[in-house]
Write a structure and sequence with these properties.
With 122 residues, the chain is α+β, with helices and mostly antiparallel strands. The protein is 32% helix and 38% strand. It is globular.
Length: 122
C-alpha cells in the first residue's frame, strides 16, 4: 500500500491531522490528497465554512509509520502527521462525535458532490 492509499483508508476509518511547527494543532480530517508539481498535501478539517478552510502543506517526503499512520517531512523536520482518530491526543469522545456528525452529513450524495467540488476547486 502506498501513502495515498493509506490516507484514503484512514479517511474512511476517520482520521485526525497533527500540524507541527512552532505549535502543534490537531484537527478532525474531512479530506486529504497528495498533489504534485509542487509536492504538497491539500487537506481540509471537518465542517469547512468556505474555501479558506482548505489548506496546503508542502512536504518533500511522506512515509507510512507503524503500518498505521502517514508522516510528512520537509527536509528533516516532520510538518504533519495523519493518524486514526483513536490515536490522536484530542478528547476522543469529542473526535468520535465530530467524525460521526461529519460522516452523517457527507453520506448525503448531494452534499458529497458539493463538498468534492468545493475541495477540488480550492
Amino acid at each position: 500500500m502506498d501513502t495515498a492509499e493509506k490516507i484514503a483508508e484512514l479517511l474512511v476509518h476517520g482520521a485526525t491531522i497533527a500540524l507541527l511547527g512552532d505549535f502543534k494543532t490537531e484537527l478532525s480530517l474531512a479530506e486529504a490528497r497528495m498533489l504534485t508539481s509542487p509536492t504538497r498535501l491539500r487537506w481540509c478539517a471537518t465542517f469547512p465554512v468556505d474555501q479558506h478552510h482548505v489548506h496546503t502543506t508542502e512536504y518533500d517526503r511522506a512515509e507510512i509509520v507503524y503500518d498505521r499512520d502517514v508522516a510528512f517531512y520537509q527536509g528533516d523536520a516532520m510538518v504533519c502527521y495523519i493518524v486514526p482518530w483513536e490515536e490522536s491526543s484530542l478528547v476522543l469522545d469529542d473526535v468520535r462525535a465530530t467524525l460521526a456528525a461529519w460522516k452523517a452529513l457527507i453520506s448525503d450524495k448531494g452534499y458529497k458532490a458539493r463538498f468534492d467540488r468545493f475541495f477540488d476547486e480550492a
